[in-house]
Fold:
Amino acid sequence: MEKTYYSYEEFVRDMRELNHLVRDYNPDTLLAIARGGLTMGHFLANAMDTRRLFVLNSIHYEGDRKLDTLKIFNIPDLSDARRVLILDDIADSGETLVGVLDELERRYPEVEFRIATLFDKPGSLIRPDFTIREAPSWIDFFWEIDPLG
Structure:
């Protein structure tokens, strides 16, 4: 399988662009999908000077192998939110994002949800509202490859 390494330097440059793209949406809440959206969430929360950063968990991959099931758990209470930006590193198959969005819209029909990713793939089931790059191959993110040196 061909893989592309995504460096910290590329990430910082792309996060600056993503921060600019989402500015007009003006989310009141950031929701990172663990683990892919965690680093994005931390950076955007600091850039936006907000502490309204929440996390939910989903499991649909083991390494680079997609599982037959999608587990979504630890969904935060978003009842006081109005505009939530869902963050994930990539819209690969799109199954995770579709599942997360369906569950959130079912629980919080009065909340507006938008999705931001660093990468998307043309065959994804869902198109992010905000994205930076098209994935040329499997992406090895620096936080997966270099976690502690």
The first helix runs from residue 8 to 22.
